[in-house]
Amino acid sequence: MKITDFHLYLLKRLSYLVLTMFLVSAIVFASTIILPGNAAVLILGRSADENSVAALEKKLGLDQPWYEQYFDWVGGLFTGDAGTSLVRQEPVIDIVVPRLFTSLQLAVFTLLVVMVIGISAGVLSALKRDTIVDRIISGVAYVGVSLPEFVTGTLLILLLAGPVFNVFPASGFVPLSEGIVPYLSHMILPVATLTLLITAYVLRQTRTEIIEVLQSDYVRTARLKGVSRRRVLYKHVLRNGLLPTITVLALNFGWMMGSLVVVEEIFAISGLGRLVVFAIQNRDLPLLQFVVLVIAGAYAFANLGADLLYGYLDPRISYGGEE
Amino acid sequence: MQLEQTQTTSNETVLSIDSLHVEYSTPGSNVRAVRDVSLDVARGETHGIAGESGSGKSTLALAILQYLGDNGSITSGTVQFNGTDLQELSESELRSLRGNDIAHVAQDAKSSLNPSLSVGEQVAETIQAHQDVSRSEAHQQAIEMLREVDIPDPEYNADQYPHELSGGQQQRVLIAMALSCSPELLILDEPTTGLDVTTQSKIVELIQDLKDEYETTIVLITHNLEIIAQITDRVSIMYAGELMEQGDVYSIFDDPSNPYTQGLLAATPEIGSDKAPTAIPGQIPDLTDLDDGCTFADRCAFATEECRTGSIAMETVADDHETRCRRWEAAVEDPIQPKRGTYDRASAGGELLSATGLRKIFDEPSTVGTLFEDTSFERFFDLEPPVKAVNDVDITVRESETVGLVGESGSGKSTLGRTLLSLLEPTEGTVTFRGDDVGEFDSSEMREFYSECQIVFQNPHSSLNPRKTIGQIIERPLRMFTDADAEARTNRVVELLEQVDLGPEYVRRYPHELSGGEKQRVAIARAFAPNPSFIVLDEPVSALDVSVQANILDLLSDLRAEYGTTYLLISHDLSVISAICDRIMIMYLGEIVESGRRDDIFEPPYHPYTRALLSSIPNLDPHKESSPILLEGDVPSMRNTPNGCSFHTRCPQKIGSVCEESCPEVEPTGEGESSEHGIACHLDEDEMSTAIEGLHNDADG
Amino acid sequence: MSVETESYRNPSISTRLGTFAREFLTNPVAASGAFIVLSAILVSVFGPYLVTDPTVTDPASRFAAPSFLDPSSSFLLGADQYGRDILARVIVGGRSTILLGVSASALGLALGVPIGLLTGYLGGKVDEVVMRLMDALMSFPSLLLGLLILTTLSSSIWNAILAVGIAYFPRIARVVRSSTISVKNEEYVKAAEARGESTVSIIFREILPNVTSAIIVEGTIRVGFAMLVGSSLSFLGLGAQPPAPDWGYMVAQARVTVYQSPYFLLWPSLALAYTVTGFNLLGDGLRDILDPQTRSD
């Protein structure tokens, strides 16, 4: 097979990904091991006696030099061994994988809703620039970015899952295998909470970008050659104006992974976010390290995906591949 | 081919504009961009609209098409096309008119093409918008149109995206798009601006050919008076939103009857004449706040009190020749003439700065440590060869002389200038200053070198720090390089400002309060502050209007005379270079192909590239037609410079394999007496001197 | 002719401020943002002296716990289950939330601005290495990075400031770096290099004054974000510690009893949304006014 520029680009991006993940793992490791606060003390509490601390240190391998600990850990990751949960006493991977699946469903679902609402509202806002429609959309967006997820989530529960309108279940997650209606009804409130938070960013980015394209010379060219409005909108405005939105979506995907911590806590969904809180509360370091690594990794992969998609859709970034 | 200004004009009027006014509303004020413009364009006519920036010429074009954006509107007057009042048309009627009956080619081809659609599709969609054809038919027609505008391999290039084509090809695509529905009227807005002169002459040639073929009526908007002189039948001269003069091209250029037109012509530099470009004093008025009377009165040598009252009407000078001037008879009586032969040749002293075997290569591959660089992968797999921006250049600059360095975009001329000043580190070769190797300088010698050698950049808008006052900007080098105390520095700042014709009140102003020409003066004052012996002028006038350009050139000459400063003037414009340089070097793809005294360059023998460059500059006199030598293709990439002579791929006088294989050295011409003139070419002197068959050369006459 | 010698060394600051103030007041976004921010800051600075100590419970209701008091003349916004005045708690809670937002943003600027300036101006390998590290840090959602840091350190408002500041500085560094890169290519920087100015002098004299607007805008908007992340941390039980009445912590408490008394949830939420909106509006307004791109030349 011929090595095309695209392969090289892919190789380059993948090597950056490896590098980023290496740095990420180092940061995770450093922040839990090297920073002040001995892990064993952290686990046992400040009042623990020295002997039990020493015993736990030995059990956890904390008496080893830090670099050996690190390489043990990373080495383990490569062989599919991310350690054993201190609290649950089962392999960390077995705990994380099903919860990752749950969280991803929430995230992907939200991303789809955000794309539909954010992009269409952004385009509408740009086309109706400086009209009442634009002002209302911008106003709603302002409120959206200013309300933290724990407020919107709680308010949504209060409004739609409680005394006012009891329409949706207030908590829990039901897999799709239990039927589409329960699945969706459990999904709606957490997805709505995340959507409210993130849509505003996609919307504002889309609006800015579309306005810029509307003022571009090539849109003027298209209009001055008598092309229909519809075609100007789809082929010239949207095609160019929506490209940067891909990057913003990937950025928000990572951000959403962080918001999951709060949202899953509010809606009592056992996903990665709640696992983070659990690991923190129980000082379960091996679990915490791995969950955080997975979340950061998800973001890095989302970014890679966005870059590749962007490159595929934007001819200006050419890898010169002949398809 | 012969550029003939055939009078195919009939009496039938295609476009008729009657006392048109256009305003743009901006917060707080209205910009009266076009005022009282009336003009008729007859079928088959090529009508030129000339004017500097701010003249309203592009706005006029968009007003014809009823496309003025959200904040622009026609406040009074009419635009009629074949008798139809275009303001009466509905949006959908306008849509079927645009691109089909009236086509518009916008300036700046690069940004006017959709970056994410193939050029073929962009041409095809115009055809589909106006004709009932299938998608594949439209595509076929698009390919034919691309062939018509001489896009090489149109089947292949139709599938390319705009960024994959050169600037000249992008312009051709726009023209193909405009002509695809055989419009009756074609409006070309600055179709050659931003293109190199050799590319420009090819586009002009193309427009001429297509006009004959499609029998299109053309409105050509440009600031370039030479192009107007060469290809239009009738001319409108615009200034500050008004029509100053209008008429037959010969009457306008032979008997300019408006002081502004006379001033513009006097300001335009011409090669091979003893004319010294002469500036128009002052600057364009603020279009939001216009006084009564003539808008040009403040800059006009003929202005009297009567010019500052009421509104000035068009007056008839002759048959088909009108001017907006109450004093036109006085202006015709004693027209503004460019200064003649005021230019004194400086007597050059000893060697000041020289370079031998200078090379500057970017992206030099290295074996280690490039992992983090974005280019590392391309490097590693050898996909991207390095850029040879300066390739084995020898150059000597002597005290008190002005050396011109000419080249088109991508010739490496700016890189050479910066490498000479140690702003870029040479990859190979040495630069010596007053006989000492600059590369060996210690830090105090380097400081001395920096104070002796200054640079003035192209873009006046970016060369001054917007957060500093003019006083602070000029004072900085004084603080760095002199021992003067605060008071002495202040006095010197005021003195320097005075020398660049700016008053002491400028000391406290910020750059954004200054016009482009004024900013460039400040940049020049800053360069002169430490009393340098050598200044690199990197395209110092190319961002300025022609009337301001002449002014800056004057100023540079005056300062040189006063301080005896040595200049290296870098420009793409041979006319500018010829106006003030003693010696000239021609650069192509990182190499110097010809160098010599000013007259050596403009007279045979010529390097074939120099010959092409000279022939490409259109003549300002409409009676003398230009016959440019059209070079094939585009300038090759600096990453893949051709073997042998770098010009052989485009050379009309290529002899054969010797040109492809061996790289010619710069050889002196003549028998010693003119030994300063050197040409790097395999041709013998006769071949470089005599006219090429089928082409004649009138650059020196 | 006489020129006031010193006048251009210290450019007439009063006239520049005057222009800025005029533009500021006529920009509805900036003016309303400034009004909100100022009112929030004033209330949280001086308010606590005007209300009863929020940690003090109402003696009448302390034995009837859990007891919520509806709004009344003595408790304008009602009282919580311990009989504590909600108005007082909201006002005092503003102190720690706004303090966290402003300090964390300041810390982010203190770390991010020098890094952004240096990497942006120097470029090359230094830039590549530092930026890869910033990318890695940015792979962590800021809330998660904050959590991670707070777990290692102990929970306190100061550690929360540290955590949020660290979580945000890579983003600030990126913004400053990209502004620096665009300024670096301006010809006045090239001109400074051509007269042999030192790197320090170029960064401080030529670049910094021209990226200040970007820094101010970014710093302002980051305050709002930092308040959100900070109160999320408090909501999760890290960050500000009880009984300090942080808004996030108040919402967490109120959630438990939301069905009995929605007011308790409503007021801190509104206060938070109000203040964050203020900083966002102020930041956007400042961008309109200061951004050289939208400024006519």
From TrEMBL, chain A:
Name the Gene3D superfamilies for this protein.
MetI-like
Which Gene Ontology BP terms does the record give?
transmembrane transport
In which compartments does the protein localize?
Cell membrane
Q: Where are the transmembrane segments?
A: 14-35, 106-127, 139-160, 180-203, 237-255, 261-280, 287-306
List residues of the ABC transmembrane type-1 domain.
Answer: 100-310
- InterPro entries given in the database record: BPD_transp_1_N, MetI-like, MetI-like_sf
Which cellular component terms (GO) are annotated to the entry? plasma membrane
Tell me how this protein sits in the membrane: Multi-pass membrane protein
Q: Which Pfam families match?
A: BPD_transp_1, BPD_transp_1_N
Which controlled-vocabulary keywords does the entry list? Cell membrane, Membrane, Transmembrane, Transmembrane helix, Transport
Q: Which family does it belong to?
A: Belongs to the binding-protein-dependent transport system permease family.
Name listed for the protein in its UniProt record: ABC transporter
Organism per entry: Halobellus salinus
Species classification: Archaea, Methanobacteriati, Methanobacteriota, Stenosarchaea group, Halobacteria
UniProtKB/TrEMBL annotation, chain B:
ABC transporter domain residues: 17-265, 370-614
Q: Which UniProt keywords apply?
A: ATP-binding, Cell membrane, Ion transport, Membrane, Nucleotide-binding, Translocase, Transport
Q: Which PANTHER family match?
A: NICKEL ABC TRANSPORTER, ATP-BINDING PROTEIN, OLIGOPEPTIDE TRANSPORT ATP-BINDING PROTEIN APPD
Transit peptide as a keyword of this entry, yes or no, is: no
Query: What's one Pfam family the UniProt record gives for this protein?
Result: oligo_HPY
Region forming the signal peptide: none
Q: Spell out the molecular function terms from Gene Ontology.
A: ABC-type nickel transporter activity; ATP binding; ATP hydrolysis activity
What GO biological process term is on the record, naming one?
Answer: peptide transport
Q: Write down what this protein is called.
A: Nickel import system ATP-binding protein NikD
CDD domains attached to this UniProt entry: ABC_NikE_OppD_transporters (cd03257)
Please give the superkingdom of this protein's source: Archaea
Q: Which SUPFAM superfamilies match?
A: P-loop containing nucleoside triphosphate hydrolases (SSF52540)
Q: Where in the cell is it found?
A: Cell membrane
Q: What class of enzyme is it?
A: translocase
Check the record and name the SMART domains matching this protein.
AAA
Query: Which NCBIfam families did the record assign?
Result: oligo_HPY, PRK10419.1, PRK11308.1
User: Might you give the EC number(s) for this enzyme?
Assistant: 7.2.2.11
UniProt-listed PROSITE patterns: ABC_TRANSPORTER_1, ABC_TRANSPORTER_2
Q: How does it sit in the membrane?
A: Peripheral membrane protein
Assembly state and interactors?
A: The complex is composed of two ATP-binding proteins (NikD and NikE), two transmembrane proteins (NikB and NikC) and a solute-binding protein (NikA).
User: Which GO CC terms are listed, alphabetically?
Assistant: plasma membrane
- Reactions catalysed, as given in the entry: Ni(2+)(out) + ATP + H2O = Ni(2+)(in) + ADP + phosphate + H(+)
UniProtKB/TrEMBL annotation, chain C:
Q: Where are the transmembrane segments?
A: 29-52, 98-123, 143-169, 264-283
- Provide the membrane topology annotation: Multi-pass membrane protein
Keyword annotations from UniProtKB, A to Z: Cell membrane, Membrane, Transmembrane, Transmembrane helix, Transport
A single Gene Ontology CC annotation of this entry is: plasma membrane
List the InterPro entries hit by this protein, alphabetically.
BP-dependent_transpt_permease, MetI-like, MetI-like_sf, OppC_N
Where is this protein localized, as stated in its record?
Cell membrane
Instruction: Please provide an example of a Pfam family that matches this protein in its UniProt record.
Output: BPD_transp_1
Domain ABC transmembrane type-1 residues, every copy: 94-283
Q: Which SUPFAM superfamilies match?
A: MetI-like
Highest taxon in the source lineage: Archaea
Keyword RNA-binding assigned to the entry: answer is no
Q: Would you kindly state one Gene Ontology biological process term found in this protein's UniProt entry?
A: transmembrane transport
Q: Which family does it belong to?
A: Belongs to the binding-protein-dependent transport system permease family.
- Record protein name field: ABC transporter permease
